[in-house]
Amino acid sequence: MDGESRNGRFVGLVLVSHSAAIADGLAELVAQVAGPSVPIVAAGGGPDGTFGTDGGRVLAALQEAARSGGAVILMDLGSSVLSVRAALGELPEETIALLRIADAPLVEGAIAAGVTASTGGSVDEVLAAAQEARTVAKF
Amino acid sequence: MPNSETERRATLPNEVPLHARPAGDFVRAAAQFPAEISVAANGKCANAKSILEILALGALGGTELVIAASGDRAAEAAEHLAGLVPHLG
After folding, report:
1. For residue B42, what pLDDT band results from cuts at 50, 70 and 90?
2. In-domain check, residue A2
3. pTM of the predicted model, to two decimals?
4. Which of A111, A120, A137 lies closest to B56 in CB terms?
5. Can you give the pLDDT at residue A7?
6. Which domain, by its residues, includes A13?
7. Number of domains present in the structure of chain B
8. How many domains does the structure of chain A reveal?
């Protein structure tokens, strides 16, 4: 795709869920479909292994994703969205510029985003692929 | 002939439905080409570069896919993808 935007690196994904098992399992599933080249950071569950979201873990995930060159963030719902927004508020502008938040169903959006990232797509192309999951029928 | 359309037909291996992993391989191959590429099967048509549309075709093993490409390097794209389909796994 547009080679100038990727610098030989692949856009990554950050997966935020109330459940560590959902985030970790989805990361494995996306890696199966998209291949090993796409960096995926899972940030699931609350502190101490509870269900919920952990603002510190989400912030660390966004920082890690930005270090690897840019990423699209996918969330399940509710406080996952709030914790991502709060974490973005902690980050400098140049880091935020590397990240995009996808308003998309988590599983379908992550699969679509992962595959597009694996083709070398730019962060905006990966975002568009994730958000396509809002409208593409399943069958 | 940048705008000519090329159509190729190819059949999935009997034991390989176009589900997540093979569909991912197909989409990655399609994305290498600048051409607009569609895949038709079961009376539906999908953008070859969209895994969600490809999965929604619901193509089972042994299904014949009709690959149509137009635009830049269309013939090469259709040829390449038609050659890939029987080897998906």
Report:
1. very high
2. no
3. 0.92
4. A137
5. 56
6. 9-132
7. 1
8. 1
Query: Cβ distance B12 to B78 under 8 Å?
Result: no
Asked if B82 and B33 count as a contact pair (C-beta separation under 8 A), the reply is no
Residue-range definition of the domain harbouring residue B63? 5-87
The type of residue at B57 is: L
B11 and B65 Cβ atoms separated by less than 8 Å: yes
Residue in A with minimal Cα distance to B42:
A139
Cα–Cα nearest to A113, from A40, A8, A9: A40
CA distance B7 to chain A (A): 23
Place of tokens 């199966």: A32
CA A58, CA A89: separation in Å to the nearest integer? 12
B81: nearest Cα among B45, B35, B44 = B35
Q: Tell me the average pLDDT across B29-37.
A: 97
The CATH number that applies at residue B54 is: 3.30.1340.10
**Which of B23, B28, B56 is opposite residue A118, by nearest beta carbon?**
B28
CB atoms A34 and B24 under 8 Å: yes
B19 is catalytic: yes
